[in-house]
Amino acid sequence: MTTAPPTRRYDYETDGAQIYVDSFATIRAEADLSRVPADAEKVAVRMIHACGQTDLTRDLVIHPGLVAAARTALEAGAPIITDAHMVASGVTRARLPRENDVECFLRDPRVPDLARAWSTTRSAAAVSLWADRMEGAVVAFGNAPTALFHLLEMLRDGAPRPAAIIGTPVGFIGAAESKQALIDLASDEPGLDVPYLVVTGRRGGSAMAASALNALAQERE
Questions:
Q1: Which residues pair with 81 in a beta bridge?
Q2: Is the pLDDT of residue 159 over 90?
């Protein structure tokens, strides 16, 4: 067992609390936070903290009702449902206001058969299993564009409506298109104005989705 630290050869900050404070100060100094709704500023800051990209606000599209809708739902005990276990694992349980359930159905034994029967991805098939839990839930996509497309198709078919949708699937095939479809949902389908957060284009990922959820769960930075 090591009983002494290695020889200090580099000049770097080692105080965890100070690193945290300095990180958020750097973000606020470098990012254009005027691009996001005022009540979503801390959401944007935490997402930037997760990805290290201060230009993220250029690609953030946040529905004006997103923060209020998501926080109201979580404070009422609504579950969080995600497309990927990486998103679920990234949610800080201590921030949840009502010890909310955080669920991912990807490992449900029904998923492989559904995916084969429908000729789709397992991520998309898993979304169909959300139906009984989706009314008023906060749902998040950090990985699979097919899963987000599948949810939008369900909603257009009359599925229960979530309180808010976090749409940050990442990738080169379908990611940008699925997120644009979420933005366009209300105009394409009158009456389906579900509050959303989207990172447009190809970038996104589970860390971004989880960081958005953490910021929505508790305002404290």
A1: 103, 139
A2: yes
